[in-house]
């Protein structure tokens, strides 16, 4: 258990539960959500969300806050925080492509977005259409 807390692995558990809860709210059924996440290629998207958000939070809590906020350097903190949020968003996007590839489809078909896919993925969080989720449930 000491290993778990020493290496801050409890953050992974928290963010895994956090994203699972929001996905359960979106689908309306926690059992269906578990089935969709663990029995389908959507697992890749889920893992990318969990790992990227955990990395961003740990960077903020254990590097940026002590280095900048404790020393009252607000502007560099905001710049680094904004950069880490953009990088986190960029790290989440490959999960969409990997999920689409695992479904043997394109990102446009799975998430029903137009040609500038990256712009759509940055502008709003998309889940596959309900019928597509039904297929994997």
> Mean pLDDT, rounded to whole units?
83
Outline type? globular
Rg from alpha-carbon coordinates: 17 Å
Helix content: over 70%
- Termini separation comes to 34 Å
Class by alpha and beta content: mainly alpha
**How large is the count of helical segments?**
8
| Major sheet summary line | none
Number of strands: 0
The low-confidence runs, each spanning 5 or more residues with pLDDT under 50, are 130-137
How much strand content do the residues show? under 5%
Secondary-structure element pattern, one letter each: HHHHHHHH
Molecular structure report:
With 137 residues, the protein is mainly alpha-helical. It has eight helices and no strands. The longest helix has 29 residues. The two termini are 34 Å apart.
């Amino acid at each position: 258990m000491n290993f778990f807390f020493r290496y801050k692995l409890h953050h992974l558990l928290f963010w895994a539960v956090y994203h699972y809860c929001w996905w359960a709210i979106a689908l309306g059924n926690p059992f269906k959500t578990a089935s969709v996440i663990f029995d389908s290629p959507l697992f890749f998207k889920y893992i990318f969300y969990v790992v990227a958000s955990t990395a961003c939070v740990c960077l903020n809590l254990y590097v940026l806050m002590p280095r900048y906020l404790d020393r009252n350097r607000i502007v560099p903190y905001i710049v680094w925080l904004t950069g880490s949020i953009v990088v986190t968003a960029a790290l989440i996007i490959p999960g969409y492509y990997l999920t689409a590839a695992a479904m043997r489809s394109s990102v446009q078909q799975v998430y029903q977005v137009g040609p500038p896919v990256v712009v759509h993925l940055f502008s709003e969080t998309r889940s596959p259409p309900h019928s597509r989720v039904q297929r994997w449930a």
